[in-house]
Design brief:
alpha+beta, two-stranded antiparallel ribbon, six-stranded mixed β-sheet, 54% helix
Length: 259
């Protein structure tokens, strides 16, 4: 009977634990919540609830009063079921990769960000194996704006970029890291010289020799040490305005004269 009451007491403490977890989560301390509160409490709750539930079922068999037997059996059965749910929840959480602290995640992802910039600044064919170089940082396929894109196509996009432009300079403007969600968002200014045919949504633009600058925003979803998803916003229209000839075929589509 003592064990049964102890299990009920442990069960009554769970709302308090949930409240503590919510406070920690609100302050961005998910890994501390699991490591120092959730895991130990789950273990204690599993042991206590299972022991109490099993004891309640045994007690129900020995009681003589039908009402008490039914009530004790139902409570014991519910506690056993709850213990099973706790085991499942604990197993699911334990199977996930260990969370990375915000500072450690920020440091690791800034390193990935630097490697990505260096990767795109160089023509792919300067690498002994371009596909392998990109595979070190990107999943295959990688989802770009929701579309599953084979890594071979990403390499071809990089080739096209370097055919059209040279002297690449990437200036980081802002960065937001959210380790718990695996998100890295960066805004940057890309400056380059237009030296070759540039394939755009409005047609191919021949080389002009002009230096163009545009803004870009990339929101990356990183799993492990690779980029799995990218949401890309690029200011291509502003770049087109900078290279369009006053009497060229793109000028009617872009509006007024180049300033």
């Amino acid at each position: 009977m003592t064990q049964f009451l102890l299990a009920v007491f442990v069960l009554s403490l769970l709302p308090i634990v949930v409240a503590a977890m919510m406070v920690l989560f609100a302050h961005g301390r998910k890994e501390q919540a699991f490591g120092f509160i959730i895991a130990p409490v789950l273990l204690v709750a599993i042991i206590g609830v299972f022991t109490g539930g099993f004891s309640g079922v045994l007690l129900a068999v020995r009681l003589e009063t039908p009402g008490a037997r039914i009530a004790t059996g139902v409570i014991g059965g519910l506690l056993l079921a709850f213990a099973v749910l706790l085991v499942v929840a604990f197993a699911v959480q334990a199977s996930r990769p260990l969370p990375v602290s915000e500072r450690a995640g920020r440091t690791a992802w800034v390193a990935i960000e630097d490697r990505l910039i260096e990767l795109w600044k160089r023509p792919p064919d300067e690498h002994a194996d371009p596909l392998r170089a990109f595979a070190e940082l990107y999943a295959d396929p990688v989802f770009i704006n929701g579309v599953a894109t084979p890594l071979t196509e990403v390499v071809e996009r990089a080739r096209a970029l370097h055919v059209a432009f040279s002297d690449h300079v990437f200036q980081l403007l802002d960065r937001v890291v959210q380790s718990s969600s695996g998100l890295l968002a960066i805004s940057f200014r890309h400056t380059a010289r237009h030296v070759g045919p540039w394939r755009t949504a409005l047609g191919e633009v021949p080389a002009t020799g002009r230096t163009v600058t545009g803004l870009g925003i990339d929101i990356l979803t990183i799993v492990g040490d690779r980029v799995h998803k990218i949401l890309v916003v690029a200011d291509e229209l502003q770049r087109l305005v900078q290279v369009a000839e006053p009497s060229g075929p793109l000028r009617p589509l872009l509006g007024g004269p180049v300033r």
